[in-house]
Amino acid sequence: MRRVRPKSHKGLAAGAFWPWHFALCPLLVFGTTAAIPAAAQTSEGGGAPGAAGASGASPEAGPAVTGGGAVTTPALPGPVPETLPPPSISGLGVPNAAAPPYSVNNQIPTLTSPPTLRLQPYAGVVPLQAYDPNAPAVLIQPSVSLGETFTDNVNYVHSPRKFAAITQLGGGVSVSVDTPRLQAVATGQGSEYIYLPSSNSTPNQPTGSLYANGHATIYPDLFYVDAQSSLIPSTTLPGFGFQNLSTLPRNQQTLQFTNNISPYLIKSFGSWADTELRYTFSSWNYGGNTFVTTSPSTPGLNNLASSTLNEGTFIAVTGQDFQKTVVRFTADAAELNGSFANQATQVSAFNDFQYNFTPMIAALGRAGYQNLRYPGSPAATFSGATWLAGGRLGTVGPDQPAYVALLYGRQQGVYGITGSSQVNITPTLVFSANAVQGVSSQGQFFASNLATSTLSPSGGIVNQSSGLPVALSSPGLGISNNVYRQHIFTAGLSDSLPPNYYSLYGSYAEQQSLTTGASAPTKSLGVNFTYSRDIRPDVNGYASLGVSNSVNSPTVVPGTTTVNFSQTTSYNNVYATVGLNTVLGRTLTGSIIYTFSYNTNGTVLAGGRNGDVFVNQLQFLLSKTF
Known about the structure:
Elements: H1 21-29, E1 138-151, E2 164-178, E3 182-196, E4 205-219, E5 223-234, E6 254-269, E7 273-288, E8 307-318, E9 325-337, E10 344-358, E11 361-373, E12 382-395, E13 402-411, E14 414-424, E15 429-441, H2 442-451, E16 453-455, E17 461-463, E18 483-497, E19 500-513, E20 522-536, E21 539-556, E22 563-583, E23 588-599, H3 602-606, E24 613-625
Antiparallel strand pairs: 1-2, 1-24, 2-3, 3-4, 4-5, 5-6, 6-7, 7-8, 8-9, 9-10, 10-11, 11-12, 12-13, 13-14, 14-15, 15-18, 16-17, 18-19, 19-20, 20-21, 21-22, 22-23, 23-24
């Protein structure tokens, strides 16, 4: 993957129309468009989606909990991907149903190793060239698309139901770079939706989606830079589950743009110790509907606020001379600037310990101190000891392809279980699970998840270590400036039996607002099943079914986007997709996609008269890659 490849002669100007080309410039010029926050850094360079987000006070999913390391991709049988799949249009990392056959390969990647405390400077980047050693070092492939969507409920209300036709004009780009100094991927699309008939609630609207991930070697064995970016359609409203939110009316849709960049130095002192000094900058910005007025009015919560995070981290870990006992020291300081509600200063210092009784059995622990200050959310402020105690059983490998690591303790003042597990039930059936807890604003949490993500061969956005979809939105809560105490559990099964591929993903989240006077935490449960099939080399099929339930979600006042955090309600959501993609020409793909969505409590979601909301949509799409 890192050897020199012949240079590509594809013209770069072909992608100049891309509406978010500025977001890709750092990726191409500096080799960066993604970050791994140092305090969320796992043992081998990856990170875990810690509930405390990307700050220094957020090693909740830290090095003693989840595995990390470079994402490796084995040689795959049959056709290999020729272009990156279009980005996920779900805030929960589910693959895009419109991915053409020549852009995906559903073979399950090799599992990464179980958690250690070692350092490894590598982000989760798998370029297209990993599948084809003869590919040029730089692949830039623009695309255009034309679609027509017919819907029987364009306003997403119980009644009156209104039919509409939505014309979609779009352009996109796929970028894959694999050179000795830079590995990077970027896939994005921008679209203009034209409604007929048009109305005040459904004006013509632009939208888009983007995922980018890069790892640059500035000076080998010393200086590196990681970076990531994402742009996804989201919403300030709760209750939408696994739904594609790109066709929601403008007054319900929010674009969420998250960026991370992280330069860092690695220095080894022989085989005695390895050190890392890292700076992380994260930002999250919003477009579209950012109005989230609370009742009663609460300063800092009325509108979504753009935020930035500056973080510095130093890590020192025992070297290769220490095999039986591994000790890792982390010192971290971070400052978050955004709305008054989520502003914070955070300082942490702690030691992680790993004692290997045998190659398959290890004791894990943590001891240290944290000081978190949230002036606008006093309930989130914490100063005191942080500690974890637990162990790991098993390894990932041909002899014993299974492990589980569990720890219990206090992090950021929150008691709970943190851990991970991976099991090869059969050679092709893989089970993964993850559990984290901590305190975080939503923006921090999403930035941390993005920093530890990678693009799967099937087009999903997944955690580098576990392979589970990552959350870049919060279906049970919607988006807000609030700070939450969170306990999050995720698990998944995936199986690859060509030409059939299956995945089952489930998540449970308990999120208590520490900013408002909410008396009970929001509890969200979601399950999603996805099936895809290679019908022929030039035809593939896709089907998915997602079901979610949220209890004690914030109440949205009927007919407005006003959120009352002193009242709560519950939502159920069912979202189903069936799609067929066929190659009409070498780079021309036709897609037919049917979706059905059903929401309870529609009156508080989007106005209209009382009753549940259900929507049918049928989309015809042509996409051309150059």
